[in-house]
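Researcher: Re-running this chain for the archive, since the previous output was lost when a drive failed. Same request as before.
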Amino acid sequence: MKTRKILSPLCLALALAYCMPSFAAERPANFAVTQQQMKALNIEVRALQRDAELVVLSLPAQVALPASGEQIVSSPVAGLAVQLYVQPNQMVKRGAPLLRVVSQELGPLQLQVLQAASRAGLARQTALRERALFDEGIIAQRRVQEAQAVLQDSEATLRQAKAALRLAGLSAQSIERIIASGKLEDGLTLTATQAGIVTNIEVKPGQRIDPATALLHLTQVDRLALDIQAPAAESAAWRVGGALQIEGRNSKARIVSISPVVAPGSQTVAIRAELDAGTSGLRPGEMVTVQLPLSANTAAWDVPLAALAHDGKQAYVFVRNKDGFEALPVTVVSSAGQRVRVSGMLKAGDYLAISGVVALKGSWLGEKGGS
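Model: Regenerated structure tokens:
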């Protein structure tokens, strides 16, 4: 004689929760659950409140340099490195000398500027003399105009020669000194265009160098950025301008850009943030954790993750009423740890099931099965 196994109410509820198919579109929203059943199934409810604990998203991030935070120092002319003025990891100010380079290429350029300055001076004197003679009625106006044209041409040539020397690395003060004294420089001193730390030195005294070869690297450690890889499913919670907190550090950051493209392999979105002043010892390449407190939203609620039940792809919460519970569909806005933010037809004061949700789902499924 065959025997039948009779399942307890709890086992039946659990079995229904996991095994029954989904009929969300046809299932009644309300189903009866007594106080005794709630106690037997360990179902606990809690009232929804606006001052509930905020959801905080936490993600790993890597400290990086902004695009303008690193300077590569190179020589504009070929030459010989003769003296190094800095050491690795040394802090330098803007305009500080970094490296002395001697170059034969500077000679012809300086000669051109001296010749152009001499011709411009002579043309200036000629133009003044012609003007004076014209004012006395001795010469025709045409000679004044010709002298003025020669002066303009010679001054343009001088400006071009000065620009060539500036491109070669000489400062405006050095160029004016060469013109005034007639003494040529045998080399130039490369200086820092911004304050920072010398992070890399790729040249040694006595080394021959070519134009545009990277010689030193300067890094601005007071201006840092963060590279964050956020899951695409949670990227909607991140906004340009959103404030971030660095976990364990007295540092804050602000989101400056969010990539519109999802990485195919990792299904993440690249987010870039810039750290505010005061980096609290952060260094480029360091891994940190960033926290994003989700802003208050009158249409969304923070609930425990255990309060959610799923029927297919639709999420539900169970709200207590006078006869039992009502299954309300909700949309998951974001999640962080054991807290989620949902939106739906909820209101302050609703009593939400926060434990025993699997058993409630089983009862809900059973309600449909017995209808």
